[in-house]
Structure formats: structure tokens, C-alpha cells
Amino acid sequence: MGSSEGMGASSKPANAPSQAPPLKQYGVTKPISMAGPTVADLKRTQNLEKFLADSGLYEGNEEASKRVEVLQRLEQIVKNWVKQLTRLKGYTDQMVQDANALIVTFGSYRLGVHGPGADLDTLCIGPSYVNRESDFFYTLHEILAGLDEVTELQPISDAHVPVMKFKFDGISIDLLYASISRLIVPEELDISDVSVLHNVDEPTVRSLNGCRVADQILKLVPNVEYFRTTLRCLKYWAKRRGLYSNVTGFLGGVNWALLVARVCQMYPNAVPSMLVSRFFRVYTQWRWPNPVMLCPIEENELGFSLWHPRKNPRDRTHLMPIITPAYPCMNSSYNVSTSTLRVMMEQFQHGNKICGDIDLNKSCWRALFEPYLFFEGYKNFLQIDIVAADVDDLRNWKGWVESRLRQLTLMIERDTFGKLQCHPYPREYIDPSRKCLHNAFFMGLQRKEGEVAQEGCQFDIRASVEEFRHSVNSYMFWKPGMDIHVSHIRRRQIPCYVFPDGLKRSRPSRSAAQLKKSPTSIHGNEVSPTEHGEKNFKRKHDDRGVRQNVSLKKHCVSPPVDSLTGGSPCLRAGDMSVHAISDCQDLKNVRSTRLSNCEQDQFDRRMSPESGTECASNSSGVTSVSSNGGSSPEDVGSALVGGFVEATTSGRFEDTTFMEDSVKLGNNTLSGRNNDVLQKELQAQLEVLAFIPFQIFKLFILYLFYCPDISHVIVLKGALCG
Length: 722
Fold this sequence. Notes:
With 722 residues, the chain is of the alpha+beta class.
């Protein structure tokens, strides 16, 4: 802080008593601490930087040179494009000669934290007579489409920030356009000057602000290199923990940059290892919706709308405001919902706990970046399958549906009054066994913590799914073959292809689960399990003591069987559903029973989703949501997707039987299974049980209720098949 000391000394006479130099303020508040690093902090920073390098987060020289070449080539293309348009619009030869356009970068590349394979965020700045709709998204699009170097060209003109996505010589590029109020764009244009915003529309302001915000961030942090290392670390952590996605309601690149920059302001002399630890410490204690701001909100006579919760009622609904530092200031995290904020706060607490262990030399950096086990954290899921006829259609259709997943989360939160929480997982999956072009997204479901469950209480989200369907159907570029299939599945029905090694993880036994409570060793250091895992383990075992008090009575919520039809041809699980439900008509008088351990294993193997057809991963009744907006018998099933999730008095979801599941969702899950064989086996089990004396049978049932290793109860009532 040499500059601060110089300022303090120059303002006082030589004989004045010495005083401590004033603290330099970064941001809107004074620093929390001016402490510098210790020897241990420097060593931990060294280890952190080595870990980041070993993880492949730094770009090589060859790829860096290629990016520069691509930027130069792209800039030459847009310059020629503007000159061509200037001539076509009838301007003079001198205007044609002076016509110009610029390519500037923003995002991670401008901040200096991009990694290998990262998208290249670029902005094309053109003159006032070159517009976005007809010139950028039509003329320039045609030029790019005709280049051999350009592939996967995808215009998104109706986005909040209109963009063209494509690959140029293998480099992924997001290209925005801003038409400024000048006839000639100078080469030395200063986009940080607010005058560049004169007489431009809102999309242009949002496009220009990407570059302006990046420049402001670098100006407002005390140490740019420490900021970059810390941001690179936190972005990698967010991706590993499933939190890096603005479109699904989490945080994107600019959000993480602003959060990290604010921590750098609070601890101006801290090194990256300290900043990472302080990051989690600060944001586990942050009182949302108090905003995160790097500088005071700037007002200007230009009159653009600013983030102001006192004046703008819509701004009061924002749950996690992270305000951009460039005029006009905006909330960059307006996508965050109640559920995604809850997930992020849980992950912040998890990171804070591990960083505390690292500071005490009880753990290492690798433990912080362990991937989040999403499919082990929930018992109920929504599976959203996206299919299309060809690769280009799938890319466009998937982008559209993914942008609407956040709306599905908000709809479910609204319709269940916040009692049912959703966790959209920002990663797409592909089933290698399917022949159709498809992608799959998953969403975890759970009851709100602390919410008292009532016996027989059900969550009806049929209206939410139907509203989501209508939202998806509004896609203006819809083509035949574009479909979306939504299904409710449980943990035991999760398809194998979502796991890294392709092997489904079996649920831990009682002894194995108890071992999770004890610390595990990582490189000789003890690391406690995550808080999320501990909570799930505690709920699972605490509920067993009251399970015998839970009524097994279920309600029939199925439409008539003859009103259902088979699913989409590429999702055969739906085709089997009608026959499976029809075959159960003769089982009306079958009583509740349990299978022995050996019999249960055989039963599970027969009923396993892996034993089905090539599309058997949709094992909980794939519901086909027609994308053509028409009314069909399939829509009856789509209205019931995930519509009824049984809740027990213990405050968690209860796994209902496969037959009840099938009827609830309007489809069955018995893909590729022989129901006649199943019926005979169940009848054989009842015949064996008929020979057991009643009292012994009664004791046997009581024993099964208390036995934690037997988890299935097969309940088949006549009402379910009637």
C-alpha cells in the first residue's frame, strides 16, 4: 500500500505527528482485513496453482495462437461485410472506403481466465445503418454459412442478448452485434466511454455491456493476477459441483467473476489460497437478497433502466442480486430461483468446510474439487429427453428446450407453493444404446426441508408440466421430428449411461452407510463427508423407525387404460405401458406381500431397466409431449408426468411400487418384461404363504417391517387396474 502511505505523508507538514495511513477502500465498503499472506498461505497458493495446471486449466501456446488467428480472420470478414452493405445501400465511394467494423472480445477471454476449448465471446461493432435483424442475422449469416471453416452455425435472434453461435476452424464462437449511433466506427473506439450508448436500443446496450463490465472488473480489483487465479479456481469448482450454468438458474461466467472480485476487494492483500477460503466464508454468511456490488450505482441522463428495487417492483423479486459495475447497472443473476439458490448455499457451506480443513492442513485441494454426486443426492427425478430428426435440428431444439428448463423449475415452485424443490442438473447426457438423435437432462426433486408431510399428501404438478409443454411448443423454428419426453423416475431407475464408468452404483448397505459417517482419507489426510450426504444418510435411517406407522393406502390417479396410447417410436418403454397395465386386470384380488431376499434379487433382475430394449432407460414411464401443439391421446399421459409424488409422514418421499408408479404417470415402466411370468410368480408366492399358519405369518410380516435390508413392498390393488 505504498501509494496510500505517500498520499498520507504529502498532506501534512514535516513536524506533524505521524499517523497510520488511511485504508484504501475498494468497492462500496472498507476492507474486512488488510492482512497479507503467511508462509503457509504462500505454500498453499503454490500447491493450488500446481493443481490447476495439472488439471489442464491453462491454454497451450498453440491454441492461443490459433485463437488470435481466428479473431483476425473474423474481423476481416465483418469489415468486408460492412463495406459490401455500404455499397448496396447506395452510399458514396468515400463512405464505402471509410466503412468499418470492429471485433472485440469479452467474457473469460477478455478477463484472461479462459481455458482450453473454451468459447470465444466476441462482439461485432458496426455503424448505425447496419442493423441486427436483416443485416447481421441474414446477410452475415449467409456469408458465414458459405465458409468452409464455419460449422454448426446457429442464430438465436430472440435471445435476451441476440447471438450467433458457430465454430470457426474448430474454435467455438459466440458472436454478438452492436450498432452504434455513428456512421463510421473508428479503430480506436473507447467502449468504456458512456457516450457509446447514445441512441442505441436495449439489446445493443446489453451486448456492449459485456465488454464494458469486463473492463470495469479488471479496474476495480486490487491485484489482477490474484483475481485471475482465484476466478479460474472458483469456475472450475463450480463446474465440478454442477453450479456453472446461467441458463438453468445457477451462475455463469460473469456472475462468478463479480463474486470473486468483491472478495478481492474485501481482502486486498490476500493471495489466491486465502481468497478461495474467504470466498466460501463470505458467501455462506451473506444475507441474500442484499446485493453484491463492486462500486456505487451510477446514474446518467441517458435514461436507461437501472437495477433499483425501491423504484422497480420486479427488482424486488430477485433472490441473489449480483450487480454489474458498468452503466447501466443490471442484476446479472436474475435467473436464480429459490431452489437453485438453496443448492448453491449448500455447496458454499460444503466448500467452506473443506477449505477450513485445508487451512488446518487436514485436507488437500483435490478434496475441494471432488465432483458432486447428483444422482445419489435425491430419490426422485424428472428426466427430460429431447429428440430430433437430424444433428442441426437437435442442436437448435436442445438449446431452446434447455433455455426453458428454468421456467419449469419456477412453475413447479409456484404451483407447489415452494414445498417441492427442484434441482436442475446443468449437464446433458446421451444414451449410446439408442439409435435416435437425442439428449437427456435430469432434475432432482425433494420436499422442502422442515416442511411437515401429511399422510396421503401428494404433489400435483400436472399443470406445471402442461404449461411447460405449451412454452416449449412456441418454438418458431419447430420442425417435424422435434419432440420432448418427460418422465418421473426414482433413484433405482436411473439409467447406467449417466455414470462416468457406465456402471450403476448400488445403494450402500447398512454397514457401508455407517462407514460414510467416519472420515475418509485423502492422501493421508482425513476428510469428512459432505454435509449433503450426511443429511441424506440421517433422513434415510431416521425414517425407518417410523415407517411402520405409514399407511400403505394409495389412491388411484390413473386415467382409463383404454385412453392411453404408446409412446414415441424411439422410446419403446411407452409402447409397452398399455399392455402391461391391461395385463394386470386379473390381479385385482392379490393382497399385499413381500418377497424374501433371494426372491427379491431375482425380481429386481427381471424388473431392472437395463434388461429392456434399447431405450429402456426411460424406465419410469416415458411420457411423450407432442411438440406440434396438437391434441392427442399422448397428451393425457403428458399431463400426468411426475404429477403425484407420494410423501410420508416422515417428511421424505416414499418409493411406491412399480405398478402404482406406472399408473400414476400414465405409462408403465415394464419395458421388455413378460407380465404373464410375473403374474404366475406372484401367485406362486401367495400359494406358498397360504400354508404358513396365520400367527407365524403375522410375526414374519412384523419382522420384515423392521428389517432395513428389504426395501420393496409390492402392493397391487384392484382399483389400480380398474
